[in-house]
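User: Predict the structure for this protein chain, please.
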Amino acid sequence: MAPPIGTTYHEGELAVQAKMGVAHTAAFRSGHQKTFLSKPVQEFFAERPFVMIAAHDAEGSMWCSMVATSDGTPCLSDISADSLVLKASTLRPNDALSGALVVGMEVGLIGIDFVTRSRVRVNCTVASALANGDVELAVEICASHCPQYITQRFWRADAAGTSGEAKGDEASARLTGPRGAPARFRPNARTVSSLEDVRGLIDGSDTFFIGSRYGRKPGDGDARHGADASNRCGSPGFVRVTGRDTLAFDNYNGNQMYSTLGNIVKDPRVGLTFLDWSTGDAVQVSGTAVIDFAPAGQGKEDGGERVLQVVTVRVTSVVVRVPEAVPGTWTKAQSRPLVLSRKVQEAEGTASFYLEAPPNTPPLAPFKSGQHMPVLVGGLNRSYSLSGPPGAKYYRISVKNIGKVSSALHELEEGEEVESLPPAGSFGPASLKPGSDVDAVVLVAAGVGITPMVSMAHAATMPTAVVHAVRNGKQWPFRGELQEISARAGVPVRLRAFLSGPTEQDLAAAEATAGEAEWKIAAKRVGVEDLLEIAKDLGASRPLFCFCGPLPFSAPLQAALEDAGIPAANIKSESFG
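Assistant: Here is the predicted structure, written as structure tokens:
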């Protein structure tokens, strides 16, 4: 299957997408992948003290490694739209990829902010090797991804900024695999004779990293045919040792791009890294992967996530334990109980849940507009946008009754408790850097995607328009609240609604003359010309467009805005469905 012109997917990814029946959705996500680093992505990477990389060694084995500074300074420098410099010199001498990055090699890179749960993936090629051991990477494909499943952690740099070679046993033991190929000797690496020796770490992991590659041949200049670094997260047990030289992990529903699985069907070689967050040690595994697309019990949740595929990895090299590969001190975010103080029906099938700190417990942590909050129900973790005003004594989430967790929330009675993790994320005007030239904000939502926009409207500090696409008045949450916000706001907050299936009552409202703080209603689907006109009415010269809704709604509008000359850096989005 040859990739269609214009797609950012190679034939392996397209084949898996088709097999899983998500080709239509994945096609919309293709537009989210860029061949450059946008300004926000450059700023994101400029603050990262650690990233994970994936590449192959001289023997062709895939590995995944952490590149990190011990003092919290950035591990990337000289960042531009087309390239960046990776401080590969900080790799421990015993790391599997130490000294392996040579000119022309494909390198996958992923940066994760474990506090905000933001992540960005970049596929690169080594453009040059610097004298100090660092490497310049040429950018090929870049994409930001959702925070789903990421375990929130807090990080603190080493007090003394210690660095240097890790300590360990200077011994090398081969783990016998199908090929029985020993890896090259690495001083100070603690090799282990069997996965059984690290079962406790692997079976107890809620996070690991995986590197894969398309298997680019010499002379192949197709940017889609590179290496990829990704993360996998879940409750302990989602990845487990299944034999002396085998392990398996469950694959859940994610962004439906299937970059890792698409690589595996083209080239089964993978590298996995497991981090011991308490000691700082890393366990690196290299092997070959096989995908089971119809695992036993597929689709059943059994109190956990719905498993779509199971990937089995057979180790074909040594298993390397790298001491002190992860600098700093890591603390896993702890959940806390919240009591449901009030439940309000906002529209047909959508309710708001007001969650407060129980008596005699610490007050709620502050949050910014545009952030989300993970809620734990029945062994499942789902993140919901905070829809209330920042600074309130409560957290408010507004949820449509679709899915297992959402249904469980709708069954809650006032006075009952739920477990939650701290608010996280960075989306919307609150994420703008000081000195930003943005002079107005256009918030574009479809259906229940309005939830983060309500919080942003509460916190508006510059001219703002709220654009809400709904089917009809019965499915229109926050209609009255947003009018109240508009009426009392200290800056202009304009309201526009686009109804795709209006009732007679809706049509009458659309014909009525609306005041400044009232909704202007159009009985049609919103188009890019509407958004541009709305921004113009705000007097904007550098508007920020924020989208929240299903991909088939938001992706075409975002692409059309770019075609109309709106910089990609001024278009933000969160999606669902």
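The longest helix spans residues 551-563.
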